[in-house]
């Protein structure tokens, strides 16, 4: 597995995969970030090297900071390697029961107003007495929140990463 991005999302993905025994390779343009992760025992590579060897990976999990036109993602798509964002990984891990009973997600998508709408929804739910949780683009990263005990319902997630070449099977349960 290849994790594209060593920032907040990439670190969250690495932390979620570690207890599963998955030892991914991390790619990023920042040599200092790669060195820090290499010092921690994580396999690292540059995006250009990852693009040349993308067929060696069964899956690419990418951070929102990697544009869909990034050469490593284009190479993965051309090679037929699935490309997921952290949202897709979180959804699948939660749906399969990896962290206990699946949580109920309230996902806000769109071009403009996701943060405002999500914050308003969160205020409405908490005012109604629900132990709602902000995560995703605001609040904790989704995968970090998954690792915590499922004491809250529902999750409020502004999501913008189900776009471009990334696969996204996140679908509404009902309306």
UniProtKB/TrEMBL annotation:
Gene3D superfamilies: Mur-like, catalytic domain (3.40.1190.10), NAD(P)-binding Rossmann-like Domain (3.40.50.720). One of its GO terms (molecular function) is UDP-N-acetylmuramoylalanine-D-glutamate ligase activity. It comes from the Bacteria. InterPro entries: Mur-like_cat_sf (IPR036565), Mur_ligase_cen (IPR013221), MurD (IPR005762). Residues 108-136 form the Mur ligase central domain. Keywords: ATP-binding, Ligase, Nucleotide-binding. One of its GO terms (biological process) is regulation of cell shape. GO terms for cellular component: cytoplasm. It holds the Pfam family Mur_ligase_M. This is Mur ligase middle domain protein. It comes from Mycobacterium xenopi 4042.
